Amino acid sequence: MKDKLEFSIEPKEFKTRILFIRFSSFGDIILASGVVSILKSLYKNSEITWIMGEEFVPVFQGRTLADRVVGINRFGIKGYISMISLAKSLRKQIFDIVVDIQDNRRSAFLLKMLKYNLRTRSMSSLEERGDDHAYYHFSRILKSIGIDKMPKKPHLLFNDLDEEVLNKNLYSLGYKNEPLVTFATSASQSLKRWNVEHFKELAKIIISRNKVSIALIGAKGEEKYGFEGENIYNLIGKLPYFSSILLIKKSKLLVTNDSSPLHMAFSVGTPAVVLYGPTRPNWSLPEGPYFAVQSPLSCSPCMKKSCPKGLNCLDEILPQNVYNVILKNKERIGFEFSV
Which CDD domains does the record associate with it (predicted)? Predict the structure, then answer.
């Protein structure tokens, strides 16, 4: 008589499937990585699909705790066509939780196409948005779907190549392991860019009074916002995004416009001095050693992308005034800058 065969069927492990929506921008995606980290901590066995603008996918694929990153076209009619196409493919999947921290018309349209009636309501107008950091904004959205938590910081993933590329480029310019102050001299909008000549003057002040060098960072195409000089390492257009973050991590201080490098510094705990013209510091400036220098013009901040008076309010911020802010906060920065 043959032995009786015994079969054991292992139950499939249940995964919580989460659809996460944040389309843009670079800085907000960095901040949103902290929300994904919260979701992973709450739902240990989860599978998170993050929908973001297609231009960000090559940068952030595999760089957050999201299991899958899907890109869409965000602009014009093509954007809506892209969302309809994506919705058709995603309808084959069942998501247990939908977290929409983009929370605008386009994300509402996408969820409608997906047949999900789970859109949250966030602070849509400038008056309703308030004067607090984006993480408070995100936490209100999370709370509306039953998650009473607020991110503490971004959560990004690095690899050995990031540091290898950084070191290759930095040491090729003659770097000798001296302390660094990094400048991020560009921004997506012209009104949010401090004059390059002001950055040059600030570099002279810092170098003349301290045993440090200045490193410049920026994306390809932003080379015109760089400059050369003794103890200046111009790396604009030379470093991939995550190598730039590691350079900021290596630095004693970041001086930046109100742009994504601020959030890069926040993600790695590097202090920053941030220059504000048309925008509000409270929206982007995190808690900790992060210091705002606001334009002295009475109309600042106006929250406009172009100035009806034809001014660039950031130009009214003088380099010595920026250095005075650095000196005033040197203990919190953690470096003994000299008068």
Answer: GT9_LPS_heptosyltransferase
Which residue from 231, 273, 275 is spatially nearest to 253, judged by alpha carbons?
Answer: 273
Residues 189 and 308 placed together within one structural domain of the fold: yes
Determine the number of helices (DSSP H) and then strands (DSSP E) in the chain: 13, 10
Q: Which amino acid is at 311?
A: L
Which structure tokens are listed for 139? 């936490």
Residue tagged 């979701």 (tokens) = 39
Q: Are strands 68-72 and 97-100 parallel, antiparallel or unpaired?
A: unpaired
Whole-model pTM? 0.91
Domain that holds residue 61: 16-144
Per-residue pLDDT reduced to its tens digit, 72-128: 998 889 988 999 999 998 988 889 999 999 988 888 888 888 887 655 555 455 455
Distance between CA atoms of residues 7 and 19, nearest Å: 36
Residue 172 lies in a domain: yes
Q: Quick check: 197 and 230 in contact, CB under 8 A?
A: no
Q: What is the DSSP letter of 280?
A: -
